[in-house]
Amino acid sequence: MKYVALLRGINVGGNTLIKMADLKAAVKKAGFTNVMTYIASGNLLFETKETGAAAIEKTLEQVIHQTFHLPVRVVVLNDKQYKKVLDDVPESWKTRGDIRCYIAFLKRPTTAAQVMKEVQPKEGIDVITPGTGAVYMATLLSGLTKSGINKIIGKKIYQDMTMRNYNTSKKLLELLEK
Q1: CA 1/CA 109 separation, integer angstroms
Q2: How many domains in the chain?
Q3: E-assigned strands of the chain?
């Protein structure tokens, strides 16, 4: 079965540094096959006979901790789950060029409803939409400095999500479907 693993907080701001070649080698050594990374922000694609995303997350978190001595949180989705998240993006994301779009992938058991209670969008600037295992966040490019979305960073729930921009997310789906 094919999976996407999204590592939280990798290679951001000079902290939690992991070379993607080293990550790929560690994941292969752990028994995963057809392992591929995409850009340096902690995106893994792989195959495994294991079918439980929670068990895979735990295994990957242990591999990363043992290999790199870093407590990295991982969100794993199988190919069908990942495709559903991308299929469910708001329609406006596909046609508008004046918004910056991010998907917050949620670590189980966190729900979109819990995140929605914590995010404080600015009216007329931000649009937040709940999804299945994800929250869709868009901000007008003209209002980036006024956005309320970035205030989620200071909230405890932020530790239970990992964000990817829409273009990266689309590319991962493309790679997953090859």
Answers
A1: 22
A2: 2
A3: 2-7, 33-38, 43-47, 74-78, 99-106, 126-130, 134-140, 161-165
Q: Which residue range(s) make up the domain with 27? A: 2-81
Q: Where are the beta strands (DSSP E) in 17-59?
A: 33-38, 43-47
pTM to 2 decimals? 0.94
Neighbouring C-alpha atoms within 13 Å toward the C-beta of 178: 12
- What integer best gives the mean pLDDT of the chain? 94
Between helix 166-176 and helix 79-87 the angle, nearest 10°, is 140
3-class SS of residue 60: helix
Q: What is the pLDDT of residue 140?
A: 97
If asked whether residues 29 and 40 sit together in one domain, one would say yes
The Cα–Cα gap between 85 and 79 comes to 10
Residue 123: Cβ within 10 Å count: 7
Assigned domain for 175 exists: no
* CA 67 to each of CA 23, 30, 88, 159: distance values in angstroms, whole numbers, following the listed order: 9, 11, 35, 22
76 and 12 assigned to the same domain:
yes
Q: What's the order of all strands across the beta sheet hosting 2-7? A: 33-38, 43-47, 2-7, 74-78
pLDDT of 159 reads 94
